[in-house]
Design brief:
Beta-Lactamase, Arc Repressor Mutant, subunit A, 3 domains, five-stranded antiparallel β-sheet, four-stranded mixed β-sheet, 11 strands
Length: 440
């Protein structure tokens, strides 16, 4: 009798109609511990992964996986990744037919971070709602049982069918993935995954993914031989300085030489110059004084503060006549705005820990704070997604926002466990006399 391959989800290519029900019952018994779980209903590779996910504290109904790489950081990281050189092979073997095959193709690094997510456009839009996007981390320890994450955890090709996923929001998907190694050093480089409907868990799909990995590793071997005769590359580009201003009373500046927490005044000045740089310009001392002081401007005080700030950050970042940034400076404010501009509301909210320099009363900072807060609020309300609204209500700026709490209550299904708490808070808000309305 032929033995069943334990790494294949659907040996016959299609699920038994009773399989999803058995899997859901076993999953519910395990995560709630309400009764003795029945691992006989679940493949051993999936059962073991479920137990690892449970032990690691993965919430089966919690927030989607974190987006760890964004914009320039993502582009720079994946451009330097070894799998970038073999992306044409993956595209030729998988992506070119992805729309016809109704699938999404993902390439991860060894930590489970998505470097490329391509394929069927409609499926990719659906996948975005669960953060199956470039830059998100789908390692098993943060995303639970899933094909790329479990393939990396076990260093073996594997399929995960629908309800075999540990997190319930992913259980409408099936996927096949296999790890990729450097053919010379043996180092784990990442994984190649295909995701879509039930057909992605058929034996033929896993064979296709493994064949693609073999072609990729063969190409890497060839490239290694070619590189052996080339001169060593020059030094890597220096990282771009970063300024963190969201949810912080004082900004944190990260330079190649180290990081420092700035004073509130220096935080305001550097932020205002970063905002000016987005328009390609700078500011005079008089202009900065107006943006810093609600009352009478004091340009001489601003010049003194800028002189001290310049000694701190260096002339390579801060110039004068007019005062301006002389090099790139990435801010977390910029990151959130770019995500909102792309319609990526979930990742934008994830990158928003709180208001911009909340202690600052500088007019220029207050205006930027209100613009970002209003843009994020509008995007979250328009999305009407309960998980986003719930996360938004946890921010201090939304504590008394009746419209946001009402939208959250409207979006939650009747049986949601968080619904009673939301309804109670909304009731208290409506009964408590309010002061002047806060403008967004």
């Amino acid at each position: 009798m032929t033995s069943v391959n334990p790494w294949i989800a659907l040996p016959d290519g299609r699920p038994d109609p009773a399989l999803p029900r058995r899997l859901r019952a076993a999953h519910e018994a395990l995560v709630t511990r309400s009764e003795r779980a029945t691992p006989d209903a679940v493949r051993a590779v999936v059962w073991d992964s479920w137990r690892r996910s449970l032990a690691g504290g993965v919430d089966p109904d919690g927030s989607p996986p974190p987006v760890e790489l964004l914009d320039d950081e993502l582009l720079a990281y994946r451009a330097a990744h070894p799998l970038a050189a073999v992306l044409p092979v993956i595209r030729r073997l998988l992506v070119e037919d992805a729309e016809a095959d109704r699938m999404v193709v993902a390439v991860t690094d060894a930590d489970g971070r998505m470097l490329w997510v391509e394929g069927d456009a409609a499926l990719r839009r659906r996948a975005e709602t669960m953060h199956f996007v470039e830059g998100a981390r789908w390692a098993e320890e943060v995303a639970g049982t899933n094909a790329p994450g479990t393939a990396l955890a076990l260093d073996h090709a594997v399929q995960i069918y629908g309800s075999e996923h540990y997190r319930r929001p992913v259980q409408s998907w099936s996927c096949s993935a296999a790890p990729v190694h450097h053919p010379v050093t043996g180092v784990l480089l990442g994984a190649i995954d295909v995701s879509g409907g039930d057909h992605m868990a058929s034996p033929q799909v896993l064979t296709l993914v493994r064949a693609t990995v073999a072609a990729v590793e063969s190409e890497l071997r060839w490239l290694h031989r070619e590189d052996a005769g080339r001169p060593a590359p020059g030094p890597a580009a220096r990282p771009v300085p970063r300024l963190a201003v969201l949810g912080r009373e004082r900004a944190r500046l990260v330079l190649p030489s180290g990081s420092a927490e700035l004073s509130l005044r220096h935080s305001e000045l550097l932020l205002l110059l970063a905002e000016a740089a987005t328009g390609g310009g700078g500011r005079t001392a008089e202009q900065l004084a107006v943006e810093l002081h609600a009352g009478e401007a004091a340009a001489v005080t601003v010049r003194a503060e800028l002189s001290r700030l310049r000694r701190l950050v260096g002339a390579q970042l801060l110039g004068s006549r007019p005062y301006r940034l002389t090099g790139p400076l990435e801010t977390d404010l910029d990151q959130v705005r770019r995500l909102l501009a792309r319609g990526a509301v979930g990742p934008a909210l994830e990158r928003y820990p709180g208001a911009l320099l909340p202690r600052s009363s500088a007019p220029g900072v207050v205006a930027a704070r209100h613009r970002l807060s209003a843009a994020l609020r509008q995007a979250v309300l328009a999305a009407r997604r309960p998980e986003l609204l719930l996360r938004f209500t946890r921010l201090p700026e939304c504590r008394d926002d009746v419209a946001v709490w009402q939208a959250c209550l409207d979006a939650l299904p009747p049986g949601a466990p968080t619904r009673p708490a939301v309804a109670a808070h909304l009731h208290r808000l409506r009964r408590t006399p309010r002061g002047p309305l806060r403008l967004h």
